[in-house]
Amino acid sequence: MRRAAILLAALAALALLPATASGASKLCNELRGRLLRGGGGASGLLVVDAGTGRRVCGRAVKRPRPLASNAKLFTTSTALSSFGPSYRIATKLLGDGEVDDRGVLHGSLYLQGGGDPALGSPAFYDRFLGGVGTNLFALKGQLRAAGVRTVTGRLYADDTVFDRLRGVADSGYATSSYIGPLSGLAFNAGYSDSRASGFAADPAKLAAAKLARALRGAGVAIRTAPALRAAPPGAATLATVRSPSMTQLVETTDVYSQNFFAETLLKLIGAHFGAAGSTRAGAAVVERFARAHGSGVNAVDGSGLTRSNRASPLQVVRLLLAMREDPVGEQFVQDLALTGRTGTVASRTHGTAAEGRCRTKTGTLTGVSNLSGYCFNRDGKVMAFSILMGSVRSLALAHLEQDRIAAAVASY
To answer: In whole angstroms, what is the distance from residue 390 CA to residue 94 CA?
Structure first.
């Protein structure tokens, strides 16, 4: 507790630190110039030596800007710290009747979603998610191992861990081309097939229908027309599949800026640590987490698709500094994209001092381009920075100037 109090006091003082000699130097003037060239006047910047907490350079550090996908920093830090890196989300197959000696289940099955964003088919997640996924069809072998050969009832889909709003505020909480449909029992990230050719009308029903057909193919007699229903109290667990670890889910979310994962994690946060499995409840927990870590954010969704997700460069940097001291800090840093190597920055910073030396999160909306994270210098310094460009006319120019800023930070 004393260490946390000291950290919060240090973070609170960060806003009051005077610019150092280096902060008023030619380097800082160069960084500010690049910020304005790339992002226009509605842009902010903060660079801090993480080891000393001293400000290296800043511009409009306290002014909130649209976060775009930098909002995922707040979502994933909350998820990783709250659940722990090794936590795995369970999807269960339950039965509400007795299994006789002939293998007949006198009752129904319930496919109960736990809010796993990675649940799907290997054909989908191997192609689109780099192999990060939970195999829904592994349930069929477990059910057979439990002795079930016939089900007198039907297979119900239970998605009640979350509400049934399919999107976020940006789309009026409906499915959009950028995300959706969200569900407590999702399948293939909400797509209707393993080719991602279109979205499912009801992800939970689709998941249950896919499983029902797989069960019939495995020799379990069951109706193939599932319906929605919550599992009754006392239903027995017959089979379970678990997601990849939370740190793997967070890595996929941040490295590839996966909107579906981010929004599902936000609802999961709300379901476990807030008032409900909803976007609003999860956002409230994220805001509380940020405050407890000496930062702050106006969180409206988990992915940053809604423009009213806002924080200042100072608030982003405070979060980054606090997460280095969090018990999951090492995993959080390693779960960010490595410049010039992985994810959304794989093609950036090549041939500069930042290549392979910065762990970052990008963010893009119309007129907005952001880059925040950490740079690890050759002399052992760790730098935390946030570049929030709010009046971008050319995304290519914004990226170029951000990469030059990152290179200068990595060389500091």
So the answer is: 49
- Which class does domain 90-244 fall in? alpha beta
Say yes or no: do domains 2-83+248-411 and 90-244 share a fold: no
DSSP assignment, residue 374?
Answer: E
Round the CA-based radius of gyration of the chain to a whole number and report it: 23
Residue with tokens 């797989």: 214
Q: Parallel, antiparallel, or unpaired for β 109-112 and 65-66?
A: unpaired
Q: Which two tokens stand for residue 149?
A: 């050969």
Pairing of strands 104-106, 150-151: parallel
CA neighbor of 76 nearest in space, from 265, 330, 267, 255: 265
Query: Phi/psi class of residue 367: alpha, beta or left (left: φ > 0; alpha: ψ in -120 to 50)?
Result: left
Q: Where are the domains of the chain?
A: 2-83+248-411, 90-244
Closest CA to 147 of 239, 274, 261: 239
pLDDT at 14 over 80: no
CA 94 to chain centre: 29
pLDDT in tens, 164-204: 999 999 999 999 999 989 999 999 999 999 999 999 999 99
Q: Report the C-alpha dihedral over residues 34, 35, 39, 40, rounded to 10 degrees.
A: -90
Q: Which helix (H) or strand (E) holds 337?
A: strand 337-338
Q: Taking the complete model, does pTM exceed 0.85, yes or no?
A: yes
Cα torsion through 310, 316, 318, 323, rounded to 10: 120
Task: Specify whether the CB–CB gap between 88 and 242 falls below 8 A.
Answer: yes
Second CATH level (architecture) for the domain 2-83+248-411:
3-Layer(aba) Sandwich (3.40)
Q: Coil, strand or helix: which one is 376?
A: strand
